[in-house]
Q: What sequence folds into this?
């Protein structure tokens, strides 16, 4: 039975991914900073664990809990976004920037670093990283969302470096953009024509993820399958 770790599994895409993996026969460690109803609803079918990806102490505690078993799949899904009106050129501040980068950028790097020995024990190690199209510098035509946009641009840079460093060890790194999804991270997008439920986004992303080979490591993909610019 392959083993997976999923962050942000108490809501949205993270929870939908945990459900997909359970259905496909993975042993799932479903984690979240808040072990709320959705996380706990996975019940006996998953290992539900409290994990704050922004806390080195929490990451250390989780890796001790996980032990030295092999890890086949790490999905870095957890992310946060400040309200758009609080993250403009005139309103963003150090607290918003620091909090956003800690969760969205540093967290995936430090958790991957901590679990790397486990991944390298797998015969087919894979890492999925949930980014966002707003992190694309080449695609930025609207501005705004300073902390969120920059945190995802930095995450893309880190993920690309990670892919290059791990390519010779046969670790696949897939960077993903979910499109507009009806989650709590940005309710202002829920009425857009191409906004979808988390289950649909996760299913499409999983299909994209599974189509990628090691030769395509470190590239940035939309849920509909097209490659996105940096």
A:
């Amino acid at each position: 039975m392959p083993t997976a770790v999923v962050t942000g599994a108490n809501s949205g895409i993270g929870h939908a991914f945990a459900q997909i993996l359970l259905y496909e026969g993975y042993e799932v460690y479903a984690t979240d900073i808040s072990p709320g109803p959705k996380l706990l609803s996975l019940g006996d079918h998953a290992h539900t664990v409290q994990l704050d990806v922004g806390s080195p102490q929490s990451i250390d505690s989780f890796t001790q809990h996980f032990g030295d078993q092999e890890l086949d799949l790490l999905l870095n899904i957890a992310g946060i976004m400040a309200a758009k009106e609080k993250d403009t050129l005139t309103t963003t501040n150090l607290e918003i920037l620091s909090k956003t980068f800690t969760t969205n950028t540093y967290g995936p790097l430090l958790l991957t670093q901590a679990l790397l020995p486990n991944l390298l024990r797998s015969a087919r190690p894979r890492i999925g990283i949930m980014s966002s199209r707003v992190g694309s510098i080449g695609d930025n035509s609207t501005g705004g969302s300073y902390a969120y946009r920059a945190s995802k641009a930095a995450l893309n840079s880190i993920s690309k470096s990670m892919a290059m460093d791990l390519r010779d060890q046969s670790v696949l790194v897939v960077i993903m953009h979910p499109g507009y999804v009806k989650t709590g991270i940005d309710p202002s997008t829920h009425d857009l024509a191409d906004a979808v439920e988390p289950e649909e986004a996760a299913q499409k992303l999983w299909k994209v993820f599974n189509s990628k080979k090691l030769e395509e490591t470190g590239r940035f993909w939309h849920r509909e399958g097209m490659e996105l610019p940096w």
